[in-house]
Every structure is written in C-alpha cells, then in structure tokens.
Design a protein that fits this description.
This is Zinc finger CHC2-type domain-containing protein. This protein is mostly helical. The protein has a four-stranded antiparallel sheet. The longest helix is centred in the middle third of the chain and has 29 residues. Strand 2 and strand 3 form a beta hairpin. The protein binds zinc ion (ZN). Zinc ion (ZN) binds next to loops.
Length: about 200
C-alpha cells in the first residue's frame, strides 16, 4: 500500500473533518467551509464528503488538501502525521506554518459572525438612545444621540436583515463593506465608550 492508500484506509473522513475544525452534527451535516454557507450543506461520511450547495466532494485527502490549500501528497503526509500513522516523518515546514492560519472560508464566516454581533449590539444601543434622548418638547434642542439613532437605526436594521436572510453574495458584500477600513472594529467599541461616559 502506498501512502494515499494507507491514509484513506486508516483515517475516517468525519473524524478528520472534526479534528480540523468542521463541526459535524449527528446527521453528518456541517457548515461547508468551501462556500459561504448558512445552513449545513456539507455531508461528511466515514469515507467521503459532499456539499449539496457548492458541489465540493472527495475523500479525506481531498478534504485536507482543500482545507489547508496544500497539494494532495502533502495533505496525505499531514494526515499521516496528525493521526500518528508515520510519527517518524516530521511535517514539512510549509504545512506546519499553514496549520496556524485559518482557511479563507473560516475567516469569512468569522467576519460574518463578528459583523452580525456588532451590528446587533449597535442596534440595541440606538434603540435605547432613541427612547432615552428623545426631545421632551418641540422646542428642545435635539440630542446628538437621538439624531444618530434616527439616522442609523434603519441602516443597521437593513444590514442585519441582509446578514440574516440574504444569499451568500449579498452577505459577503455587507461583510466586506463593514470590515473595510476597520469600520466594524470601531463600531464594536461604541457601546463600551458610551458606558464610560455615564
Ligand atoms: Zn459548499
């Protein structure tokens, strides 16, 4: 048996997927790391995986190669090493370095989650401001927090709507807009700043 055969015969695809951070549920389904997945579309069995949305499929070596963006042979060696099939052979430096980095799809998903939670937080802040700083009489000077709430609430709700219900293209548009120039990170500190002022 060559390395490919040994790896395929010895390592369970679902176990490998889980070891590499794919959360497989008890139906064998997971969020697909190869497209911007919202509901679990990736089916992972003992000896193969298949995504019903983007069509990605293959065996445990294909999966590893794709996840870490490495060649099939390196993926087989990585699997052999990670699952202690060939403890005498150290991993090539290139693979060890890649291990530390998130795959692109994971990064996308994390950004999407970040945008959603920050926007949601911001929306709650604005809802609070809208009530708390509303003018009491028509001649009152408008509080700037009330003004911000009036302007930004519809915007925040629109973005949240897309993140909740949009297709993967629409969501990635929102995410790339929000993450440009670190905008979402700045927004993330808003509710905290507000607490300091009180
Ligand atoms: Zn997919």
């Amino acid at each position: 048996m060559n390395l490919f055969e040994v790896v395929k015969a010895s390592i369970n695809t679902q176990e490998a997927a889980q070891a590499y951070g794919i959360d497989v549920n008890h139906y064998g389904m997971a969020l697909c790391p190869f497209h911007n997945d919202r509901r679990p579309s990736l089916y992972v069995s003992d000896d193969h995986y298949h995504c019903f949305a983007c069509g990605e499929h293959g065996d445990v070596i294909d999966l590893t190669a794709k996840l870490f963006d490495i060649r099939l042979y390196d993926a087989a060696r990585k699997l052999a090493s990670d699952f202690h099939l060939a403890p005498d052979k150290p991993l090539p430096e290139a693979i060890r370095r890649k291990k530390k980095h998130n795959t692109k799809a994971q990064q996308l998903r994390e950004n999407e989650q970040l945008c959603f939670s920050v926007l949601n937080q911001y929306r709650r802040l604005l809802l609070d401001w809208e009530k708390r700083y509303a003018p009491q009489a028509p001649e009152d000077v408008l509080d700037e927090r009330f003004v911000e709430a009036c302007h930004r609430l519809p915007w925040a709700e629109y973005q949240l709507d897309i993140l909740l219900q949009g297709d993967s293209y629409e969501r990635s548009e929102v995410v790339s807009e929000l993450t440009a120039d670190g905008y979402i990170r700045k927004l993330q500190t808003r509710p905290r700043e507000e607490r300091y002022h009180e």
